[in-house]
Specification:
Elements: E1 4-10, H1 16-25, E2 30-33, H2 47-53, E3 60-63, H3 72-75, H4 88-99, H5 101-115, E4 120-124, H6 134-143, E5 146-153, E6 156-159, H7 166-172
Parallel strand pairs: 1-4, 1-5, 2-3, 2-4
Antiparallel strand pairs: 5-6
Length: 179
């Protein structure tokens, strides 16, 4: 049986060189930006800079802003039975991933890349995954049979074991997700 893996990283306030070193350390071939708005006060983490400079390091870059969470609570009413977390934003984000067809397509694209053997890393801005929406997106990937590893720094790699909402997500991901 094949073992499938994906990584996540938060750019935080790292220098670009440190960021690239981390990606190279884990042999990342494709960085997938999952910020709703791919910009930063650190210019080297803005979309244009990443598009221009990551390929120089043999790392491809794609933006999947559909999977971003910023502002999602203003447009998505959380499902009432989500009691695993108090945060309205994360409750809305979990709801969004469960019910939105476009989000499902992008998650399935990630699964497809991984199953093709492409070493992918999902990027947002928070260094620690438990402070970021990618923690809950990781639950979806785990349900779909993808092992998730969070890159914290050069010496810390954390395997995703599931958030407090993992059981809820697992119980609610439809069979359509599992094909």
């Amino acid at each position: 049986m094949m073992v499938y893996e994906v990584y996540t990283i938060g750019h935080s306030n790292r220098a670009f060189e440190e960021f690239v070193r981390l990606l190279k350390q884990y042999k990342i071939q494709l960085l997938i930006d999952i910020r709703r708005y791919p910009s930063s006060r650190f210019r080297w983490f803005c979309r244009d800079y990443l598009e221009a400079n990551l390929p120089k390091h043999d790392i491809n870059y794609k933006v999947f802003s559909t999977l971003g969470a910023l502002g999602i609570a203003r447009s998505v009413k959380p499902l009432e039975d989500i009691s695993c977390i108090d945060s309205p934003t994360y409750r809305a984000y979990i709801t969004y991933l469960l019910i939105n067809e476009e989000a499902r397509r992008y998650i399935n694209k990630i699964v497809g890349f991984v199953k093709e053997g492409i070493t992918c890393c999902l990027m947002c801005c928070e260094r620690f995954p438990w402070r970021c929406h990618r923690y809950y997106l990781s639950d979806f990937l785990l349900v779909l049979g993808i092992n998730v590893f969070h890159i914290i720094d050069e010496e810390r790699l954390m395997q995703h074991k599931g958030s407090r909402c993992f059981d809820y997500i697992k119980a609610n991901v439809s069979e359509l997700w599992r094909n």
